[in-house]
Amino acid sequence: MLIRYEDNYIDIPVNPEECPYDQEWFEENINKPEYNIWHRETRHLDNSYIGQSEEAQYKWDQVAGNAPSLEEMVSNKILEEDIHAWIDQVLDEYEKDLFLSVAYDRVCTPQEYASMHDLKAATVRKRLERVRTKMKKAVTQSPFSWLTSEEVSK
Predict the structure, then answer these.
(1) For 51, which DSSP code?
(2) So what's the pLDDT on residue 137?
(3) Terminal-residue alpha carbon distance, the chain
(4) Which of 29, 56, 60, 151 has its CA 20 to 30 A from that of 145?
(5) How far is CA 71 from the centre of its chain?
């Protein structure tokens, strides 16, 4: 498997049985230049920015402190895929579209969704309420049953 480091790739032998991801998935999800640029710009921050203004130091600290680790990025991506697969199993196609658009990804409000689909806003809110109820019932029987009822209702 090729791992990107700055502008070069390092070939690391990987047993396909131990790693369920192929090179294409790895390129799309991990080998991103954003992480490498961040690492190159921040790896010498231990004392190298002494003498800079307080504002510049604060900005560098924010960049270094808020950037997710590679492990966090991979873990979040896998969790996101698992959640979407579970939603596919639980909801019908129109329910999934409504839930993802309005509640999960928050692409639009219930009113905007209603106008895009020639529905009343009250109808969209009621359908969304039914979808949430359906998901609350299903979540107790799923791999995500460790979620508390407060987290499910968010």
Answers:
(1) T
(2) 86
(3) 39
(4) 29
(5) 13
Question: Shortest CA distance to 126 belongs to which of 114, 115, 139, 108?
Answer: 114
Query: Which residues 6+ apart lie within 8 Å of 13 measured at CB?
Result: 1
Does residue 108 register a pLDDT over 70? Answer: yes
At residue 123, the pLDDT reads: 95
> Within 10 Å of residue 36's Cβ, how many Cβ atoms?
15
CB-count exposure of residue 10 (10 Å: 0-12, 13-18, 19+) = exposed
Is-contact 131 99, C-beta < 8 A?
yes
Higher pLDDT, 26 or 134: 134
The DSSP line for 68-129 is PPHHHHHHHHHHHHHHHHHHHHHS-HHHHHHIIIIIIS--S-HHHHHHHTT--HHHHHHHHH
Contact between residue 66 and residue 73 where contact means Cβ atoms under 8 Å apart: no
